[in-house]
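Recap from last week: sequence in, structure out.
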Amino acid sequence: MKAQLLAVLVAAAVSIAIEAYDLPDGAELIVGPIKTTFKCPEKYGYWADVDNDCKIFHICHPVDYPDGKHELFTYSFFCGNQTVFNQLTFTCTWPEEAVACANSPEFFYLNDRLGVKDAKFLTFEDIEKAKAYIPLYNGQANTLGSTK
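Predicted structure tokens:
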């Protein structure tokens, strides 16, 4: 029994995950009910939380230490009132200016460029691809004061 307990404690010390969704009190007043389903991939980056309509995003930061210990830090943030996380630009913006939340995973590859010397943040191809998913560019945005 002691050996099993020791094995569990050692395993816990080797791989530690810092949990997501440590948001300020009252965050649900801005974003609505919060689904805690997001799990960080084992790579650094900024990730839209699709299950929360991209009103929440996460920064994932895996760390490997020389002693073999591994930690996965997850930092969660919510966007300001009436804004969403845009996976194309890693910013919070108005929904009509952002990649549609459901299509955010198609742009997760942009995280692969973070920290790469001389890598362009966005290429012409990235922007062209995104246009199909951004309401402002594909004619689906509602306009204020429209008489239609």
